[in-house]
Amino acid sequence: MQFTISHQDKDTSARQGTLTTNHSDIQTPVFMPIGTQGVVKTIDPEVLTHLDTQIILGNTYHLYIRPGHELIHHSGGLHSFMNWDNSILTDSGGFQIFSLARLNKISDEGVEFQSHLDGSRHFFTPEISMDIQRHLGSDIIMAFDECPPGQADEKTVKRAVDRTTRWIEECRAFLNENESLYDWTQMLFPIVQGGIFPNLRKESACSLIPYADSGMAIGGLAVGEEKNAMFETIHLMDSLLPKDQPRYLMGVGRPTDLVKSVQSGIDMFDCVLPTRNARNGQLFTSKGIINIGNKIHKESFQKLDSDCGCYTCEHFSRSYLRHLFNIKEVLGLRLATIHNLTYYMTLMETIRKNIKSECFSSWSNAYLSEMADHKGM
What is the domain range of residue 66? Predict the structure, then answer.
């Protein structure tokens, strides 16, 4: 894996670069659509490719629960299983264990939990998380970490920082002792924890940097903490993380959040918002958010967004899309998802272009000012 920074904004920490894996060249800053269970819901790989999707995210917990990492390995890995030729990043499964499963016991050795599907008992250790991700064959694998709630006290967050440091050592040791199962390189990203406590963020970053040779992630944000504290933490990370490696901000994804985070040197993002909100009828546009189920759209035969050239906007009216949602037609979910992903991909392309043209600072400030009155953006 290689990461090359091509352009650096002179007024902010924004930078444009290329992250190269064995499967694709990824232009950064980049947004990764969520393919939690080996699929970006309602969307096929051909559409993702048309949208210039360079990398998607899969989840270790969900793919372990079903269909199982060994079955995916027998198919030739996750790329082959889902017919996806570009890059894949897999989360370690830790966040889902803490947020979805019935958590029975956490210790320095790992986490004992019950499946959210059938209540079956399982135990994840750093080694098991690494082994599952080895079998999945993702290009970027995430270290097993402990992600405490956003409102956790300092003592709880400190304990999570210590465990995360202990676990990265075990993740690295396992990968060093076990060769890749595929003919491509899998790179490990440590995950910085520490909540919104600057001292713990510094401690976590310093302890994890020795294990970072290809990139680092920022975890434990957008989990219930105050928004201003989140951005203060992101800004702090800019001064702590290596400049020559990609920085991945996990789970933060409102459009304005992306722009503000790029200002602080973030290169990679993922979030369920564009796809999940689309399935709930909430659509991102250049004029703010549209709730397509609202009665005002019943007789509106205009496109969703006059500034958007996606398949949905070019072919269907707001009225028709509202009708599809009212009759619970799956086509409505698909068209809405295509539109929201187009908005996000276009936003990231615009960010990259403005960094290249040395206009990012003025453009980003104008964008944030324009979106300030639009809730949810």
Answer: 2-271
